[in-house]
Amino acid sequence: MRSDQSLATLEKIAADIKYGFTATASEAAVGPKFVRITDILGGSIDWERTPYCEFDGDAEKFGIREGDLLIARIGASAGTVARVDREEEAVFASYLVRVRVRPEVADDRFVGFVLQSPRWNDYVARTRGGSAQPQFNGPLIKRFTFPLPPLREQPEPVKPGETDWSRI
Fold it and tell me: Which residues pair with 82 in a beta bridge?
């Protein structure tokens, strides 16, 4: 860790950490897109295959916006992360946790990069519980600790092709 970095937890840099909405997915456009664990591929959301759901709930509580980070909390993909890369009318499913980063503290692209790192993967492997159905809950997600460089330097690790995990 460099001398100008401090340690942070996801809880410390997040404006909001929430569990998703429980609904039934529909191929018919009956409401907003409904992002599920199976819609997360390679760190992003497969919007073309994402179904819809009927929704009359709290859009602030269950809606997603560009820069939000969605983390799978159950099953073989527990700990898998996607950064929302564009604005869509969408809500996220109950088996996901949404982390909304405080922009005055951290860059969501940087935090998304950290949540793809070996440090994150090791943390998930050590802490998720359950043998038949692995689980990774909100309190565990909040406690993840990582080096946090000054805000002006945070976007640097997400340059195309860069994988210098020693910085994390």
Answer: 70
